[in-house]
Amino acid sequence: MVTAERQPKVACPDCGLVQRLPVVQRRHIAECRRCARLLAGPATGRIDAPLALAVAALLLLIPGTIEPLLSVASHGAARTCWLSSGIAGLWGEGFAPLAVIVGAFCLALPYAYLAALIAVLAGLRLGVRAYLGPAFRWIMRLRPWMMLEIFLVGCFVAYSRLRLVVGVQVLAGGWCLMAATGALLLALTQLDERTVWEVLPVRPTRHRGRDAGWRTAWGVWPYGHDGRDRAIACTACELLVTGARASDPCPRCGATLHDRKPYAFRVTASLVAAGFLLYIPANALPVLTLVSFGHEQSNTIITGVLELMRNRLWPLALIVFLASIVVPLLKLCGLTWMLLATFQGSSRALIARTRLYRIIDTIGSWSNIDVFVAAVLVALLQFGAIAQARAGGGLTAFAAVVILTMTATRTFDTRLMWDASRGG
Ligand SMILES: [Zn+2]
Ligand SMILES: [Zn+2]
Q1: How far is the CA of 68 from the centre of ligand 2 (A)?
Q2: Closest by CA position to 332, among listed 364, 358, 303
Q3: What does pLDDT average to over the chain?
Q4: Which ligand neighbours the alpha carbon of 13 most closely?
Q5: Per-residue pLDDT tens for 179-204?
Q6: Closest-lying ligand to the alpha carbon of 241?
Q7: What pLDDT digit, counting tens, does each position of 23-48 carry?
Q8: Where are the strands (E) in 36-131, listed by range?
Q9: What is the pLDDT of residues 210-253, one digit of tens each?
Q10: What pLDDT is attached to residue 4?
Q11: I need a labelling partner for 133 at 20 to 30 A (CA). Which of 34, 143, 249, 324 fits?
């Protein structure tokens, strides 16, 4: 029987507290005793189920991308839309950065993610262990940027809007894409990261070079450093590496070890400032122009939500309002609060701030819905003066805000808030 003393020590990724992981029983979870971060669920040991579902998702994704998703008909003319049509439509209208974003997040990354996940799980199944640590680290890193399910919701919003003006039909590719997304999400619910990490080998630690220094918000570690080797938690696989030095590679996943994410405060502050600046044109400029029988209507983010409300599409209006208006503001204001509190060394609402960080980290990518809606509408609504959709300049600024805030969330290190409060 495994006793609590034999359980491994872990460092909470959110507050940095080193603690012994309790034995996690079935249907139970282990949370950090200081900030309530989920440290571990019961290790499911499942490899076959997520592997089978990932293979199914990849097989369904192929027809989902090569078959047409939707078709529209208006006044005797018809158009069909493939996943690639939105990318080509945006590119053709001179929105190359948006085309690249949609192509990367909805086409390239889902394929790369699924192929890598299948390779790693199949490798584990066959007993191969070499290179799987770095590969699984990259899979985890890619996850927030792989937005198949968000694209699907974007398609649904576009479908609902199109039904108001033209006849629209879901085609084979659309059904396959839905099934692929369902299989992918099921695979992710079956995938237990801890099960995978625990079977991957930890190579003997090799130190290299001199200590690169403890870098924090202010460039150097402000609480004294005795120069001894110490335990550093890997931010990728959460292994607590004892006797490690900053900039050593993690012996399990190969990530570079740092006591705290390097330059986290300055990089995050710069990204948040840029996000606030771009938030103004993102909301002031039109994101989409719809032409209907010669009548042009330019929608900003907020008027797009009002349009959905006017047409009594309440659930969609709520989704787009939350994703496009509430979430970006929550990310910008939340990160600003965290940065200011860290700078002041405040210990107020530390747990609330850490919880808010977890929320914005989880929901951040959903703001891209509006970009995907525009991609589908631009691809489908091309009937000249009768019905036409054009992307607007606000959309590029909006997509930039989403990417900047997602990156800022990843560059920030919540442990700095806890360090600063101890020092203050
Ligand atoms: Zn914690
Ligand atoms: Zn690691």
Answers
A1: 41
A2: 364
A3: 86
A4: 1
A5: 999 999 999 998 888 888 888 888 87
A6: 2
A7: 777 778 889 989 989 888 776 778 89
A8: 38-40, 70-74, 77-81
A9: 444 444 333 334 333 444 457 889 989 988 888 878 888 999 99
A10: 53
A11: 34
Distance 401 CA to ligand 1 centre (A): 29
| pLDDT recorded at residue 406 | 94
Ligand nearest the Cα atom of residue 238: 2
Q: Which residues contact residue 46 at a Cβ distance below 8 angstroms, ignoring those fewer than 6 apart?
A: 190, 191, 192, 195
> Which ligand minimizes its atom distance to the CA of 133?
2
Ligand nearest to the CA of 417: 1
Q: What is the DSSP string of 6-44?
A: GSPEEE-TTT--EEEPPP--TT--EE-TTT--EEE----
> Which-ligand-closest: CA of 11?
1
Beta-carbon contacts of 307 under 8 Å, excluding residues fewer than 6 positions away, are 161, 299
- Give pTM, 2 decimals: 0.87
Task: State the distance from the centre of ligand 2 to the C-alpha of 30, rounded, in angstroms.
Answer: 20
User: 351 C-alpha vs ligand 1 centroid, how far in Å?
Assistant: 9
Which residue shows structure tokens 């409300």?
A: 309
CA–centroid distance, 252 to ligand 1, in Å, is 22
Burial class (CB in 10 A: 0-12, 13-18, 19+), 379: buried
Q: Which pLDDT score is estimated for 244?
A: 79
Give me 163's structure tokens.
Answer: 């039904």
pLDDT, mean of residues 145-163: 90
Percent helix / strand / coil, the chain, rounded to 5: 55, 10, 30
Name the helix (H) or strand (E) containing 153: helix 148-162
Question: From ligand 1's centre to the CA of 9, what distance in Å?
Answer: 13
Residue 171's identity, in one-letter code, is L
DSSP annotation of 108 reads I
Query: Is the dihedral angle over the CA atoms 258, 139, 149, 278 positive or is it negative?
Result: positive
Paired tokens of 137: 């680290």
Band (330; pLDDT cuts 50, 70, 90): very high
